[in-house]
Task: structure prediction
Amino acid sequence: MRWDAQRLDLVEPETLPGLPTVRGLLRSVEVPEFPGLTFHEVRAKSALNAVPKGSAMPFSHTINTFRGCSHACVYCVAGDTAVLMADGSQRPIADLRVGDRIIGTEQRGSYRHYVDTEVLAQWSTIKPAHRVRLADGTTIVASGDHRFLTGRGWKHVTGTGSGSRRRPHLTTNDELLGFGRTAQSVAACADYRRGYLTGMVRGDAHLKVYRYQRAGRAHGDVHRFRLALADTEGLIRTRAYLAQAGIATDWFEFTAATDRRRAMSAIRTSSAASVAAIADLVSWPDHASDGWHRGFLAGIVDAEGSRSQHVLRITNADEEMLARTTAAFAALSFDNVLEDRSLPNRVRTVRLRGGLGEHLRFLHLVDPAIRRKCQVQGTAITCTADLRVLAVEDLGLEMPMFDITTGTGDFIANGVVSHNCFARGTHEWLELDSGKDFDQQIVVKTNVVEVLRRELARPSWNREHVALGTNTDPYQRAEGRYRLMPGVIDALARSGTPFSILTKGTLARRDLPLLAAASRDVPIGMGVSMAIWDDDLHAALEPGAPTPRARLDLVRAITDAGLPCGVFLAPVLPGLTDGRNHLAAAIGAIAEAGATGVTVLPLHLRPGAREWFTSWLAREHPGLVGRYRQLYGRGAYVPAEYRSWLAGRVAPLLAEHGLDRQSGGTARGLSGSTGAPAGSDTGLPGDESAGFPVGSLPVRLVTPVAPPLGQPEQLSLC
Result:
C-alpha cells in the first residue's frame, strides 16, 4: 500500500547529500535519545495524501507525519552482560524484566552521578558481535552500533572517519567511564553459610550459657541465643542458615521504633542443644576456605560493617575478630588497613581501600544480606580503574544480544556506562521497507499540523475519512520527541473530519484523553496490529517489536477509554502460528482485552524480506522449508487454497468470541474472503477484498464518552 502518497511533497529546492529526494530540508539532527538515527526535519507543502481513484480502500486520504520508522533498533549487548541493580547486586541483561530497578546515571552540575532508575522495556535480537577489551581486564561483547560513555562523550563500538558510517567510535585513545571490573557472586556453599554465621553471631549476637545453683536440681543452667537487628535481611538469612543446620529459632519484635531509632526484630532460642550447635557452628576453623572467608566477611559486614562517605569499614574491639577480618580480606586479595584511633573502648576499624570499584568487587564477591550497605545511588562517577580501550575485536559471528530502555537513558553494563536504546526494531519481513535508510533516516514533517489545518479549512474539503498509520506508524518513538499527533487529532476533530489510526506503539496511550474528546465531535476508528502470539517465536522473529502482550495492553487501554479498537492479527505463519491452539489463544486474548473486531492475515514474503525469512527458516525450522517453497513458489502470497483453509479455521474462533462481525467498509474479513491474497507489509490488508475489523474504521458512538481522568502514563515498547 505505497501509492503516490509516498511522495514527500516538500517545499524549497534544497537537498541533503545522501538524501537527494528530500527537499525543503531545515536541518538534520542526531540526538542522544535516538542514537544511530538521523532526523531530517523538513517543511512539507501538503499533509493530506489522496488515495488513487478507484481504490476500494475505505478511506480517501492518508496522513504521514514521518517517512521512515524509528522503531528500528540497532543496539544490544550479549545476554550475560552484568547490569548493576539498584540494590547493588548484578544481574545478566537477558534476565531483566520490565519494572526492575537498576542503576543509571544523571548529570548534576559538572559531574555525572549514579542514580536509581527503572527498566521500561527489554528485548533481544541477533547482531554481529564485537568484543571491547579494557586495560583493567573488563571485556564486553556488543554490536558495532552500541554506545559507551567515554571521557570525550558517547561513542559507538565501531565506525569510520568518513563516508556513510562516519560517527564517533571507540579507539585505543579512549577511556570508558564507570567502576570497571568487578566480581561474580558465587552461590552459597556449606563453608560460606558457616562463615556467615560466624561473622554475624560473633559480631552482633548474644550467645551464652548462664549457670545457677537451684535447690533440688543438679544445675540451673540457662541457655541463651539472641540476635536483634534493625535490618531484617540479615535476620532472615541467619535464621535460614540455622534452619539448614537443623536449628529452629523464634522470631519476635525486639524494640519499637522511636523518633531517633528504627524498630528492631530478633530471633532466639533457649534450647540447650540448639545453643550448643550454634556455638559449634561459629567456632574458628583450623583451615578456612575461600568460601568461609567470603561468608565470614558477609556476616561481619551485616553485623558491624558500614559504608558511607565513600568508605567501607568494619569495627570491633575483639582482637581475634579484627585479626580474622584482616586475614579474610587478605585471603581474597583486598587491600585493607587497620585504623586505631586509641579509643577508650579499644574499638578499631578495618577499612577497605581502593574506591568504588573495589567496594563493588568486595560486595559482589562476599554478597552481604543487608542491601542498603551495597547501594551506589548519589555517588559521583570517578574513574579509579584503568578503563582504557585496548582493542575492539570483530568476532566474525552473529549472536543473540539484548537491550533495555531505562528511565535515565543508560545503564551500567559490566561496570561501564552504557547507552540504552530508545527505539526498537520491527523486522523487514513484517512491515518495513528492506532498505536500512527507512530504519535510520527519518524524515519529519515538522509543519504538518500547520499545513493540515490550512488544507482542512478549504471549501473543497468534503470531510472524507482520513487514515493514519497506513505507511508508517504515527506513534513510533520519534513522536515522543516531536509531539505531532496531538495537533493532528485536534485539527481533524475541529474540522469535523472522521479519521482512523493504526499503530502498534504504546505511545498512543498518551493521547487517549484527546482521542476520547475527539470521538464526541467526529467518528473515529482505532486499530492495533499484532503479529506473533508465541513468545519464543516473537523473540526470534520480532526481537525489537512490541510484544503481543504489550499491544494487548494498548487495546485494553483504548477500550477502557470508551473507544472502539479493531485488531489485525498479522501475519499468520504457515506451520508455525496457524495451529488451532495458537490461533485460539491469540483470538481469546484479543477478545479478553476488549477488541471490537479482528482480521486475520497470512504472511507475505516479498523480495528482500523473503531472503531474510527463508534463511532464518532453514536455520531454525528446516522441516518447513519445503512447505514454504510450495506455498510461496509463485510469488509473495499464499495460494487461494491456503487462504480458504485458514478462513475455515479462523471463522469458528471468531464466532466463539463474538468477533465475526466486520466493519461496513468495502472489504470482508479473511474468514469469508475468497478474493485476492490477503496480508500486508503494513499490517493492513494487502488487497482490496480483505476485511477491516470492527472498530478500526470511523464509527459514530451512540453515547459520547467522557475523556479518561488524568494523563495516562506513557509506556515503552516491550
